[in-house]
Amino acid sequence: MSSSKKKENSSKDVKVTTEDYITSGMKMIGIVGEASQNFLPLISTAFVVINEVNQIYENAKYNINICDSLMDRVNAAEANIKTLKRRNEYNKRFREKENYMTFLKFVTVLENIRDFIKNVSSLQGYKRIFTSTNIKEKFEKLINDFESSMNDLHFTLSINNEEQRKIDQEGLDDDIKNMQKFLEKIEGNILDQHNAINTVLHEVKILKDRLDDPKGNPDKNIKANEIAANELENPPHGKPDDIRGTKEPHVVKRIYKTNEVACKFKEIPDDSDESLRIRTQLAILGKLRDSPYIVNFFGLSKVDGKRVMVFEWAEFGTLKELYENKDIAWCAKVQLALDISRGLTFLHSCEILHHDIRCQNILITKNLVPKIYNFKYSRLDADATCKMNNTMEIMRWMAPEKMKQTEKKQVRYTFKCEIFSFGMLLWELAFEKLPYKYMEAEQIKEFVMKGGRERICWGDESPSNKEIQKGLEKVIKDAWQHESQLRSSLQIIFLKLCKLALKYTILDKPLLFPDGTLDLDGSKYNLTLEEDVISETDIRSMTFEAGLKAHKKEDKKKAWECFVVNSELGKTTAKYWQGYYLNKGYAGIKDSEKASQLVKEAADDGDSDAQLYYAFTFANPDSFMEYLTKSADGGNTVAQHNLGIMYLNGKIQSADEELGLKYLRLAALNQHEESREILKTRGIDIYK
Q1: Angle between the 132-152 and 97-120 helix axes, to the nearest 10 degrees?
Q2: How far apart are CA 661 and CA 640, in angstroms?
Q3: DSSP letters of 154-191?
Q4: How far apart, in whole angstroms, are the C-alpha atoms of residue 432 and residue 459?
Q5: Angle, to 10 degrees, between the axis of helix 415-431 and the axis of helix 490-503?
Q6: CA–centroid distance for 396 within its chain
Q7: What SS3 class is residue 215?
């Protein structure tokens, strides 16, 4: 192989092999006096391989436990090599040919680990190479080879013990079991009739790689299916929504070979490099219709002499439009979530990330089948989801690590970012509203980056629906973990949704209800505020401060609305006031249990008023003094006075005059008149 050809292959595969160094390394081995020069290229190779392993692991989609076990060892290898390099020990240890070859073997083991993780962590690689039997054998061999090489090099390996081997084995068994379940249930044309990966997935990946390669030679013969204009017929019975869209270009409904289709006007250049790129995108889009959960693209045509993209018609519009007009049954939500995960799995198996997964980008057919759309290849806009002007719009679903992106600093969108967004989509579907509805983009960014998330507060439901809610809550929370590596994989999310869908089927059940029928979050009866109480023009006046002003004016309805809105945004003091109102029944709603929960949340967040109120209203004898003391130490004058009296008189706690006077002095300094009078009768000057 020529050096130029070798270089080309290396850049294409983005990996370096020890083969490139063997010849030159062997030539240098005999030069004992230049050992450090001989060995340095091999150290560099090891670091390159380790970096590649890290990149592959970052986007691992399957068999995470297996990948974790191997990553533990790769990390140990990296630490040892860094120590070796820092101390210049290779000058002494690797002068001999035998030692050089030992390290060369070690780098080869790292390359084998890299290749194994790459295959086992992707669906295509897994199905191409592994069975449940040989994956165990390959894994064990890699572990043994690695530990043997580490011992030969006298490297430290803290995880080389029986306990670690037991953890590794349990993780291996879990991964194999989950993979078998996943492949049995995934459906959606990901596997063909022979239980092999659908050839379309390979075809799409080839086209995608060609499209993404800036130096690649595009196929000038590639083209999308052309539909003659006369094959698109007007619907026999027109409806008002046969033309959709608030502004041009509109989407118009037509009939194509008995199929209802949506014709989306789009200017597409005929002859240019851009045209080649678009034709390749359209070819990819056409192949993706193999998935029943990705929008079906029929081809290109013309309507009224203008170019259109022809897609299948979605009777209910987007999932967002559906939940805005109807309430969706809980069992139907689970099935929708499951099928969306099937569509995402198909996309990810083609190495395609959506970049903007939310209910607005899911179409719903008349049979309530979800269809993923508005991703890169259906939009014909290569960079739309990466531009900052689009970032503000999708902030509600964005992963915290992606929020760090600025115009000067780009942050790569990963599979883990997509998992976070899918979790937010599931929350949106569950509660049928936009996440962080009353927050601006910058508020959302600050809130989420500090670990804040939307509240999960369910309404009153049947036992079966409560079980669905419990299952969805677990999936959502696992998906929106702050640390990306702690998020569930799509495979595990799918299996959990599949279990829920099998248990709570949609057969013979109503799937859609009039809007407002279901008590999704408790707002229908008394737990939270219904969003439609507040018009968009009122949002700016719904501040917490406005609520306090309304309370002072005894406008309890207005105050309640403000407190609820700000409580749902996570404001601690608003939680206290919402709880206070619920306990008093000030807004025509009385719920002591919910009130106790809200006040305790605020108290545990450090609000001294909430701590005082919780102590005297909800606390049991064991926690009464705990919360009262917290309130007093937090500067609450009433708490200071009461705690002082209790210590002086020996109420609840044994008498402690010193402590009692301490709290009374604090209260008196805070202008508490009764505390001042008590101290005055004792001849105590609070200013001395």
Answers
A1: 150
A2: 10
A3: T---TT-SHHHHHHHHHHHHHHHHHHHHHHHH--TTSB
A4: 13
A5: 30
A6: 11
A7: coil
State the CB neighbour count (10 A cutoff) for residue 543.
15
Residue identified by tokens 């689970």 is: 334
Write the pLDDT tens digit of every residue in 66-102.
999 999 999 999 998 888 777 765 556 666 667 778 8
Beta-strand runs (E) in 59-210:
none
Ordered domains of the chain (ranges, CATH)? 3-185 (no CATH), 199-312 (3.30.200.20), 320-514 (1.10.510.10)
Long-range contacts of 175-181 (CB under 8 A, 24+ apart): 175/62, 175/63, 175/64, 175/65, 175/66, 176/132, 176/135, 176/136, 178/491, 178/492, 178/495, 179/62, 179/63, 179/126, 179/132, 179/491, 180/132, 181/495
The tens digit of pLDDT for each residue in 353-375 reads 999 999 999 999 999 999 999 88
pTM of the model: 0.71
Which amino acid makes up residue 421? S
Asked if 556 contacts 578 with a C-beta cutoff of 8 angstroms, the reply is no
Tokens of 185: 């249930």
| Backbone dihedral angles phi then psi of residue 447, each to the nearest 5 degrees | -65, -50
Q: What are the tokens at 600?
A: 């305790």
Token pair in block for residue 302: 């013309």
How far does CA 674 lie from the centroid of its chain?
55
Which CA distances in Å does 526 have to 439, 521, 585, 623, 633? Answer: 23, 10, 10, 28, 34
